[in-house]
Design brief:
It is a single chain. By secondary structure, the protein is α+β, with helices and mostly antiparallel strands. The protein has six helices and three strands, in the order H-H-E-E-H-H-E-H-H. Strands 1-2-3 form a three-stranded mixed β-sheet. It is globular and about 50 Å long. It starts with a helix and ends with a helix.
């Protein structure tokens, strides 16, 4: 396994946040091997929650991080295991499945956790707000970004 620093810096996935019908979900699809964090997220959520539908979006490109980073993600998980659970419990299940990634290089994780019935009545993925520039006060950010491009 690669050191966590190397696992965090890979080419980004710029995937539009579009909704996809359940028929297009392929739980065993092989994600791009050049994105190990995204692959780990997809694998762990698939194995733990057995989703009817799963979307993993790397949104790192929307933030002040070096190109190729895998640090900011949005997931949409549709699972029968969420039936009867309040939203906080659903999020806890996702967070527990991804505790290794969240304690490592994943800085932010936006979660949409729906039951199949909720997904059936509203098959959309919420859009992320624009980055508010949390690194504006970090005067070394320009150097970090330059180093990430080299």
């Amino acid at each position: 396994m690669l050191p966590s620093v190397l696992r965090c810096v890979r080419p980004i996935s710029i995937t539009p946040a579009l909704s996809r019908p359940l028929a297009h979900f392929r739980p065993q699809m092989d994600p791009d091997p050049s994105r190990p964090v995204e692959r780990a997220i997809r694998t762990k959520l698939t194995n733990t929650l057995k989703p009817d539908h799963l979307e993993v979006h790397n949104e790192s490109h929307m933030h002040a991080v070096p190109p190729g980073s895998e640090s900011h993600f949005r997931v949409l998980v549709v699972s029968a295991q969420f039936k009867g659970l309040p939203l906080i419990q659903r999020h806890r299940l996702v967070n527990e499945a991804l505790k290794e990634e969240l304690s490592g290089c994943v800085h932010a994780l936006a979660i949409q956790a729906k039951t199949p019935e909720q997904w059936g009545s509203n098959p959309t993925l919420a859009k992320s707000p624009p980055c508010m520039g949390g690194s504006r006060g970090d005067h070394t950010m320009e150097e970090k970004l330059k180093a990430g491009r080299e």
